[in-house]
Amino acid sequence: MDQGIHMVDMMRLFAGEFVEVKSFISNQFWKHEVEDNAYALMKTSTGVVAMLHSSATQWRHRFQLEITLSQGQIILDGILSGSKSYGAETLTVVYSEDDESGNPREETKSFDEDPSWKDEVFDFADSILLQKVVEGGTSSDAFKTMQLVYQIYCSDKDWRVRYGLSEAVSTKE
Prior knowledge:
Layout: H1 4-15, E1 18-26, E2 37-44, E3 49-55, E4 64-69, E5 72-77, E6 89-95, E7 106-111, H2 116-129, H3 139-155, H4 157-162
Antiparallel strand pairs: 1-2, 2-3, 4-5, 5-6, 6-7
Helix pairs in contact: 1-3
């Protein structure tokens, strides 16, 4: 719901395709026919594990992606949206150093502008004008993200039964 699908898309971008999904989906708070909260634990065939919480019940909107690597961590936080409700957009790099104090060195960069829409439109126009293949953000990528969202819904047995979802996900594109 809301920004959750964008987070799922980013998780696929950074981790790869997920082959195992466990989830809990709920609409207990707002009681609408859409989820209030989606919790998912996912794993790729190479062992990368990702965890998602997409919520419509947090009183402060959040959008945060943490990527932990062997030599540090990257934290993407906030969205430069028109509503400004997701907070400042920042990128924090946490360095894994031999400092055992539990307080590693961090560098945070803040962003005041979001050129992503302009960049995407120009890239799309270039693809048409220069007859080049679209490499990122393809309809195939969107379809795979939607398949993963469907798997997240289906992984919760109660949600699957309530809405008559089939666990089989078509792989046709």
